Amino acid sequence: MPGYEITQTWGIVAPAGTPPDVVRRLSDEIVKAMGQPEAKDKVLATGAVPVGDRPAAFEAYMAKERKTLGDVIARSGIVLKD
């Protein structure tokens, strides 16, 4: 559909109710890992672009993507089935 671009996104999520200190620690370690040249190079080799962003930024990105895909579905006439 013209006007839309969909890209592959990978993210790491924790179960609902995970304590904030655990989420913060996981986030800190992921950001640190994605800052390492070896890890970054491995991700780049897959064709992906490593970001290593914070949970709030990832949630905002995903919310935007859900809206965009909802618009695509609505405009295209796609019918989702269970």
Features:
single chain; 82 residues; mainly alpha; 3 helices; extended
Task: Summarize it.
By secondary structure, the protein is mainly α. It contains three helices and no strands.
| Number of helices, where a helix is a run of at least 4 consecutive DSSP H or I residues | 3
Main β sheet profile: none
Global geometry: extended
Distance between the termini: 24 Å
Low-confidence stretches: none
- As a whole number of angstroms, the C-alpha radius of gyration is 16 Å
Taking all residues together, what is the mean pLDDT?
A: 88
- As a percent range, the share of helical residues equals 55-70%
Q: DSSP strand (E) fraction?
A: under 5%
The overall strand count is 0
Order of helices and strands: HHH
Structure class: mainly alpha
What does this molecule look like?
The protein has 82 residues and is mostly helical. The protein has a domain at 20-76. Helices cover 56% and strands 0% of the residues. It is extended.
Describe the secondary-structure layout.
Layout: H1 20-34, H2 37-45, H3 55-76
